[in-house]
């Protein structure tokens, strides 16, 4: 009765629909805005209004379903926002005022809901940007006040989702931890009552130890093709915090945003504080469907040139480290051509004169060519590359400084460090204070200077190898608690300027491997470096896990000397993304070189499918002797299937067929093994085989992985 009465009072119901899904926001009798639904959309939109009646409200226990939980008034769950008003009061109440929906284009809509505190001149606007076809939502908040003085934002999440508990199966969190060379280690477990938090306080390299990307399965862990699953992540390259609170009524509240640890933000009257976006998608067809939605969204809308092309490359990091000179590089440029890749990427070690960069303990900050190694400068290398018919790219780490550098001596106030404590280094270096606009100008100038002096420079690898210790900004003075937030916004300012001037040039996002992979940064980059660990066996697992969230076109995979696998295995694994090499070409045998050259030709023919097609994870390396992954073109006329033996115990291999996915059941496909090592026979026998999509998806194909065929690549073409 009580609820019927409430519904009769001017209740506002706001469905936010995408192609398959809906989020439903609704006001209650006190005009609080609740999130009452997230799931498959209903055929009859009028029924959304009645959803909340199905749940016994837990109002008396103080547990509610606020769409953005304020702190210190009627809701007693984990807050999305906590403030200290100008008068010192810590209580916030938010009530619904109005909302608007606008269409950005055919696919994108924007819902803005305005809420105010009845007792204070304090306002929060919730933004829901939805991508209809992709079922993706980006959600953020804009906070503003007109109080008499500064308001302190103690916590300021981007989004607050409420998932209604309904069966006894509960909620299952899949999360990631890692470290250098062991990125993307997954764990999946049922959430218990109380709060589980994943977070980062590292400042830079924010996801070195934990990643903000997660999946919540409902009722039971979703598989690739079955189950209800929500994928989420922060679009933020700094400290993040995501709370998962399972309340007494078995509802799950997800509060995601910037980590408020040591980060109270002082907000002046009339100034807007915009939180970064929290990104999410939902599927009731399992993790595979959710990933394909995210991958497609990223290509269409987020990464730079997601529908475009990429450059294959030869990198010199592992073949030379810091030890090179012009003549060595001249040889490597010839090797680049000989191998048949598009670009040579000169890595770390090319700069610094009073403090030459001959190791990782000096030179960062001094971005002038080292005169001994490169007496004729970068420009002569760019020209020489051109003379060899290849392009030239270069490594930088412009956010950093070594104490052994001219920059450190010239601008000690640009460096993040505590004035009254000994310096603490990570890889012998410190972080520059990007909260300071002068430092932003300097960092922009590093990139701009390179392109201005070398207009034909074709690629930049942007690294970031240190975390922030002893956070203190000489520039921020009394607002020290702004440092983590202003650092990231400062970094984004620089990247925005870079992109305004150089909209399409390929940039690789690197952070000593995958220490900084998120869509906040990736909107300025074409690709990222998943891990310094390029052992292909490890990469099968690392690339598998990244693929839940990031499309193959963003994954820079290089063939190196890591691991014990033969060159074929290494090349095949690198093919599942943006392919590159970091080996000494001169040390390859004739057959190894010719294998690489022909694999590059195969890659050329298939890269469009790998970069822009749909990805299907067929057999997980975690559960099987062999992992299988495939990519299918939009029109389903071309596909490629990669298969790797990941268990080297006696007798291991693929004994049963692997069912393919995403094909047209009515099309006939010619299946051919490619990337055959010179002299090796195909697992399929002498003849190419032909099957219908129907057969391949219901019976499957046996890729024949065994100790003799550790890596098998099958190409499918509709005939
Ligand atoms: C980081 C990167 C490597 C390489 C080195 C150079 O570790 O991840 O790929 O560029 O820096 O110092």
Automatic annotation (TrEMBL):
| Pfam families, per the entry | Glyco_hydro_36C, Glyco_hydro_36N, Melibiase
Please tell me where substrate binds in this chain: 180, 347-348, 427, 461-465, 510, 532
Gene Ontology biological process terms from the UniProt entry: carbohydrate catabolic process
Catalysed reactions, as listed in the record:
Hydrolysis of terminal, non-reducing alpha-D-galactose residues in alpha-D-galactosides, including galactose oligosaccharides, galactomannans and galactolipids
Q: Where is the Glycosyl hydrolase family 36 N-terminal domain?
A: 32-268
Q: Locate the Glycosyl hydrolase family 36 C-terminal domain: which residues? A: 627-715
Gene3D superfamilies associated with the record: Aldolase class I, alpha-galactosidase from lactobacil brevis, Golgi alpha-mannosidase II
Which protein are we looking at? Alpha-galactosidase
Q: Which family does the UniProt entry place this protein in?
A: Belongs to the glycosyl hydrolase.
| Organism field | Mucilaginibacter rubeus
Active-site residues, as the UniProt record annotates them: 463 (nucleophile), 532 (proton donor)
Annotated GO MF terms = alpha-galactosidase activity
Keyword Hydrolase assigned to the entry: answer is yes
Query: Which InterPro entries does this entry report, sorted A to Z?
Result: Aldolase_TIM, Alpga-gal_N_sf, Alpha-glycosidase_related, GH, Glyco_hydro_27/36_CS, Glyco_hydro_36, Glyco_hydro_36_C, Glyco_hydro_36_N
Key words of the record: Glycosidase, Hydrolase
* Enzyme Commission (EC) number: 3.2.1.22
